[in-house]
Amino acid sequence: MKLHVVGTGSKGNAYIIQNDDEALLIECGVRFNEIRKELNFNISKVAGMLISHSHLDHCKGVKEAVASGIDVYCLKETSDCFGISSHRINNITPLKTFMVGNFKVSSFDLKHDVPCLGFMVEHRETGKFCFITDSYYCEYRLPAMNNIIVEANYCETILESRLKAGEEPSFLRDRVLRSHMSLQTCMKFLEANDLKQVYNIVLIHLSDRNSHALRFKKEIKDLTAKKVTVAENGTVIPFGKNPF
Questions:
Q1: φ and ψ at 167, to 5 degrees?
Q2: What is the pLDDT of residue 244?
Q3: Nearest CA among 118, 129, 138 for reference residue 52
Q4: N or C terminus: fewer CB in 10 A for the chain?
């Protein structure tokens, strides 16, 4: 399996976990044709698509995906915002397990400014991995994982220094604090979980203004001694159970 980052950040989020035979899509905050290209136009291998929440940078391409025959899994509060009705839309309940092709999925509530889900996914090739974005905190300690995809949107010290310099309005600072995960909170999340079997830690949704990719990568690597990737548009990495 490989992880393909089609888009990450406030301009649009979309991720693909795929091998030659099957694919799981996570988020659709870009035009669906961009995802189709990353799949080499083989959408027949797509098992389904997970959507965390209703903000457009995570779901603006859903109508195109549904029209292309993709099954979408999300909260009812999220699908109500799509403006469409289709048998392809599957409303899910947090903490309930369901299958998306060969991917075993469960979801859990996150802390955003709209209803939002994180996902725990298991597949024989990837092992267990989590996907967490757009949340100022994760209240759960998750089962032992092989891979982690987690938001590290901003650094608290960078944000505060920009505020003091008049470069960041206080109302934007306040919204970020209530809706996104800081580097510091990301590190606490990692410390709270069992990382013994983790192969990849992938940092996603970094802020254009309030983050520093090299610093984030170094601090997480120093903390965990794991392989750390800062996601960028076009990133492709091996995403198996182990490095072998």
A1: -95, -10
A2: 63
A3: 118
A4: C
Burial (CB count <10 Å: 0-12, 13-18, 19+), residue 125? middle
d(CA 60, CA 65): 10
C-alpha span between 229 and 6 (Å, rounded): 15
Rounded to a whole number of angstroms, the CA Rg of the chain reads 17
C-beta atoms surrounding 3 within 10 Å: 22
Residue 45 carries which DSSP code?
G
Residue 227 CA to residue 202 CA, distance in Å, equals 8
- Measured from the Cβ of residue 45, the count of other Cβ atoms closer than 10 Å reads 14
Q: Which of 19, 61, 43 is nearest to 236 (CA)?
A: 19
Whole-Å CA distances, 186 to 78, 120, 176: 25, 17, 14
What tens digit of pLDDT does each residue of 124-144 get? 999 999 999 999 999 999 999
Q: In this prediction, what percent of the chain has a pLDDT beyond 70?
A: 100
Environment class of residue 93 by beta-carbon count within 10 Å: exposed (0-12), middle (13-18) or buried (19+)? Answer: exposed
Give the predicted TM-score (pTM) of the model.
0.96
Q: Nearest Cα to 40, choosing from 65, 16, 66?
A: 16
76 class by beta-carbon count within 10 Å (0-12 exposed, 13-18 middle, 19+ buried): exposed
